[in-house]
Amino acid sequence: xxxxxxxxxxxxxxxxxxxxxxxxxxxxxxxxxxxxxxxxxxxxxxxxxxxxxxxxxxxxxxxxxxxxxxxxxxxxxxxxxxxxxxxxxxxxxxxxxxxxxxxxxxxxxxxxxxxxxxxxxxxxxxxxxxxxxxxxxxxxxxxxxxxxxxxxxxxxxxxxxxxxxxxxx
Length: 169
Description:
four-stranded antiparallel β-sheet; mainly beta; 9 strands
């Protein structure tokens, strides 16, 4: 007997043992004197992951604060920085730093300077700037506390500055 034929024979044998042959049963007759057929008792299966009987105590969650609204100013007015938010102030090599800068609507560009390093923050809307930046390798001798200078400029070149303390580790 080949291997395939043997497998077919085993499958047929297992199927025959699992389902007994059907025998014709007479159709039940409806009579008034016939006793009702009792239903089998239901099997109760315990839930392996029962729910706690008492609800857990509420955990205080941080309420998200809405982003500040840009200050609407005419083009010739001095620029203003309304808010600067960074996801972290301690930065390690390879960290992804993200943040937002909210300014007056007349701000044309925002620049961030850290020591001798500088980069521009892209504008997402009038008065809204956002960045997502992966920190480069920070050598051991550059570790320390610094001040990040956030500089906002209007189209005439006037500027506003806000200093943010950071640490490079």
